[in-house]
């Protein structure tokens, strides 16, 4: 048994280290059903309060190293105008963004979040929940297990993630606002579904769902195929979220443009691995 893991995850309630136990089999079944239907599933009180406190402290201790960006982006996390598309095309619709990350390369060696991300037990559990094996930890050294910070007035507009599966662990909720909204399965490999994306950007709420996430809850989410956003942070309290992510391709990283705009820097690996994606989707 992994001693440190049991101080982080509530393994008594969720024995994820044992995928053959009846409890875990039931949990995996529930998560998989929800992910198939809604592209999103939540497990309440997954992280123990003491560990949550450690994550909050490690973030606050490095809060000055957080990269805050205010660059407007399109739903494909791009800030550059592509004039070859019609003026009202989703790729040419840019929205206000104010959001920050503590990049994964800045985490202390012994970090609670980093440790959790590196555990096979978690990887295998998520793999079972999404019903795909193998999945991999993300090779992007900045984005793989970042902390997300949204300060007062922070906002994250409609977008798709560049990784396939994102976990979200709420560390600190804002006073008001900062609500996660999503449109399940709006695009799939080979089909961008621009018409439907455009409707959502224009304010159509038909596909939009909201998710309530409490501190300690774990959300598993198919971010690459699900348009999502976080509404504006109201009040004085920042919103803190841990966002470890998993991918289908163990080699790929963010594009240089994406890395620069969102994480504030570009590393050699982003240039070296900048080739077209095999799923035909933009990012
Ligand atoms: Fe996202």
Summarize the structure in words:
The protein is an alpha+beta fold and 283 residues long. It has a single domain (5-272), classed as Jelly Rolls. It is 24% helix and 21% strand. It has seven helices and 14 strands. The chain has helices spanning 22-38, 49-61, 112-117, 120-130, 194-201, 256-263, 268-272, and strands spanning 40-43, 67-69, 99-102, 136-137, 145-150, 156-159, 165-172, 176-177, 180-183, 209-211, 218-221, 227-230, 233-234, 239-247. Strands 1, 2, 3, 4, 5, 7, 11 and 14 form an eight-stranded antiparallel sheet that branches. The longest helix has 17 residues, at 22-38. The chain is globular, with a radius of gyration of 18 Å. Fe (ii) ion binds at residues 159, 161, 223, 228.
What is the string of SSEs from the N terminus onward? HEHEEHHEEEEEEHEEEEEHH
Describe the global form.
globular
Number of helices: 7
Q: What summary fits the major beta sheet? A: 8 strands, antiparallel
**Poorly predicted sequence stretches spanning 5 or more consecutive residues:** none
- Average pLDDT figure: 94
Supply the CATH class: Mainly Beta
Q: What is the quaternary state of this protein?
A: single chain
Q: What separation lies between the terminal Cα atoms?
A: 39 Å
The CATH architecture name reads: Sandwich
Name a few traits of the molecule.
single chain, 283 residues, alpha+beta, Jelly Rolls, four-stranded antiparallel sheet, 7 helices, binds fe (ii) ion
């Amino acid at each position: 048994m992994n001693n440190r893991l049991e101080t982080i995850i509530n393994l008594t309630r969720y024995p994820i280290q044992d995928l053959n136990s009846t409890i875990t089999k039931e949990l995996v079944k529930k998560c998989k059903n929800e992910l198939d239907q809604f592209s999103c599933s939540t497990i309440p009180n997954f992280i123990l309060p003491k560990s949550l406190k450690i994550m909050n402290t490690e973030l606050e201790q490095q809060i000055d190293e957080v990269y805050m960006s205010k660059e407007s982006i399109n739903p494909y996390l791009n800030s550059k105008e592509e004039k070859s598309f019609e003026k009202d095309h989703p790729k040419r619709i840019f929205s206000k963004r104010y959001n920050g990350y503590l990049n994964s390369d800045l985490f202390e060696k012994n970090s609670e979040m980093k440790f959790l991300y590196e555990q096979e037990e978690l990887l295998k559990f998520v793999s079972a929940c999404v019903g795909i094996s193998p999945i991999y930890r993300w090779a992007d050294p900045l984005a793989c297990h970042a902390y997300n910070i949204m300060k007062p007035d922070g906002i994250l507009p409609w977008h798709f993630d560049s990784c396939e599966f994102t976990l979200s662990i709420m560390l600190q909720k804002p006073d008001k606002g900062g609500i996660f909204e999503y449109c399940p399965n709006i695009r799939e490999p080979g089909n961008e579904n621009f018409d439907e994306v455009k409707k959502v950007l224009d304010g159509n709420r038909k596909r939009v769902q909201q998710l309530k996430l409490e501190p300690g809850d774990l959300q598993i989410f198919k971010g690459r195929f699900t348009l999502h956003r976080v509404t504006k942070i109201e009040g004085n309290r920042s919103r803190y979220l841990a966002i470890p992510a998993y991918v289908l391709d163990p080699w790929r990283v963010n594009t240089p443009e994406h890395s620069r705009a969102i994480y504030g820097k570009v590393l050699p690996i982003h240039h070296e691995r900048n080739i077209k994606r095999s799923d035909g989707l933009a990012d």
